[in-house]
Amino acid sequence: MKKEVQLLVDKGDLLPLMEAFYTIQGEGYHKGTAAYFIRIGGCDVGCHWCDVKESWNADLHPPTKTVKIVEDAKKYSDTIVVTGGEPLMWDMSILTTLLKDNGLQTHIETSGAYRVTGTWDWFCLSPKKMKLPTQEAYNMANELKVIVYNKNDFRFAEEQAAKVNKDCILYLQPEWSKRDKIVPEIVDYVMANPKWKVSLQTHKYLNIP
């Protein structure tokens, strides 16, 4: 990447945009809500079960003018979800300022492993064992979404729940490839521990992006 381009990326004037699309939020608190998704490339957290591994290498996704990203977003929805990859690898300040200037709601889905930048109306924290969240991310979380791949993830979920703020909504979500086996275990766990809620990837059941 050319030095002048890298400087603009570092500032947040350009972002490695993987894709952007209008769909239905399938997960967590806002499931069922129409939203415009901005997927930013780049992630070094490395979840082996990640369903968007093509997002990991930021170099594969062209640096795109943040102004252009926002111009496209405002055509579709009042709710904008910034996801990845790991969006907080980049400075989100310019993106969210422009979105807010256009009266749009800013949501983020993040592992929380990097310094929080940007202004967020909704902060979905989905922590990963390989690279744990910062304290700031725990403090800001509106919802905690823990992906359950095996039984050990219930213990991890409780460890993470102990670190978020008292108003944070707690979700357990089955990893898609293990859903047939793990969903009954999640159901039993939530019934025994009702502070938790079940999150399903409903967009996959609906066969939409």
Automatic annotation (TrEMBL):
EC number(s) reported in the record: 4.3.99.3
Residues recorded as binding S-adenosyl-L-methionine, renumbered to this chain, are 49-51, 85, 126-128
User: Which InterPro entries is this protein grouped with?
Assistant: 7-CO-7-deazaguanine_synth-like, Aldolase_TIM, rSAM, rSAM_sf
Ranges for the Radical SAM core domain? 30-209
Positions contributing to [4Fe-4S] cluster binding = 43, 47, 50
The record, for Pfam families, names:
Radical_SAM
Describe how the cofactor binds: Binds 1 S-adenosyl-L-methionine per subunit. Binds 1 [4Fe-4S] cluster. The cluster is coordinated with 3 cysteines and an exchangeable S-adenosyl-L-methionine.
Q: Which SUPFAM superfamilies match?
A: Radical SAM enzymes (SSF102114)
Superkingdom as given in the UniProt entry: Bacteria
Which pathway does the record list? Purine metabolism; 7-cyano-7-deazaguanine biosynthesis
Q: Which cofactor does it need?
A: Mg(2+); S-adenosyl-L-methionine; [4Fe-4S] cluster
Quaternary assembly: Homodimer.
The text of the family note is: Belongs to the radical SAM superfamily. 7-carboxy-7-deazaguanine synthase family.
What's the protein here called? Answer: 7-carboxy-7-deazaguanine synthase
Q: Which organism is it from?
A: Flavivirga aquimarina
